User: What shape does this take?
Amino acid sequence: MKIYAISDIHGQPPEEPCPECDLLIIGGDVCPDLRPIEAQGAWLSREFIPWLDKQPASQIIGTWGNHDFVG
Assistant: This one.
């Protein structure tokens, strides 16, 4: 099983997709520091979800971090 893990991207997901893997783990602090909280939700929909859709991972697991206020 190939596992790839990232964390603390703070609103700047890598430009290149992750390596092909069976499991992508995202360990929090995904969102940029945006207020109000709804701005983080909008960023997730506009930027992060499309980035996730491009990842060559069979499964993706993530958790919120202390800067992910929307979570």
Residues 23 and 59 are 5 Å apart (CA to CA). Strands lie at 3-6, 21-26, 57-62.
